[in-house]
Design goal:
Length: 174
């Protein structure tokens, strides 16, 4: 005798019979809000590592990956930091790092967002889910590499139409 009874679940339709279109997916409202708040900064970070079309594709795919893990991400103490960590792990698996000597991954990420992508300290903190004082400390303790001064020199095979010199620790934007 079986105590459980299961009914077969019909498969989800791949296309609407009337229109031939894939069914519209409804994203969680919190994810839509998160996307609206963070997409530009995630794209800026990706553009530091990739050309514009590749960065746009990478960020679109990364957000697709984020939404598949969304319930786990929002269950964490700091969902913004968790989402940022998830995004940077996803992007790091597909790109080469810039030749920036950084003591920790978050320092590297802060340098890229602030000094290369041009985000303010507050915007960098918002994107990474960290306190602005932590970002300020990480940026203040970073030492500029001496051998490489631009992304084009670092990755000559990567197209970069607007190579920018990496600023030193004293060249901070607020």
């Amino acid at each position: 005798m079986s105590l459980t009874h299961t009914l077969p679940t019909p498969p989800l339709p791949l296309a609407s019979p009337s229109t031939g279109q894939a069914p519209a997916l409804r994203l969680p409202p919190a994810f839509e809000a998160f996307y609206g708040l963070h997409h530009a900064r995630y794209l800026a970070y990706a553009r530091a590592h990739l050309d514009a079309p590749a960065a746009a594709t990478a960020v679109r795919e990364a957000f697709g990956d984020l939404v598949t893990h969304w319930s786990d991400i929002v269950s964490r103490l700091n969902p913004t930091a968790e989402a940022w960590d998830h995004f940077t792990r996803w992007l790091n698996a597909r790109t080469r790092p810039l030749p920036l000597h950084a003591d920790v991954g978050l320092q590297y990420q802060a340098v890229v967002l602030h000094h290369i992508a041009g985000c303010s300290i507050t915007a960098t903190a918002d994107a990474t889910g960290q306190d602005p004082s932590k970002i300020r400390y990480l940026l203040g303790s970073w030492t500029k590499p001496t051998a490489v001064t631009s992304r084009t020199e670092a990755h000559p095979d990567t197209p970069d139409r607007q190579a920018r010199a990496l600023p030193g620790p004293g060249d901070r934007r607020r």
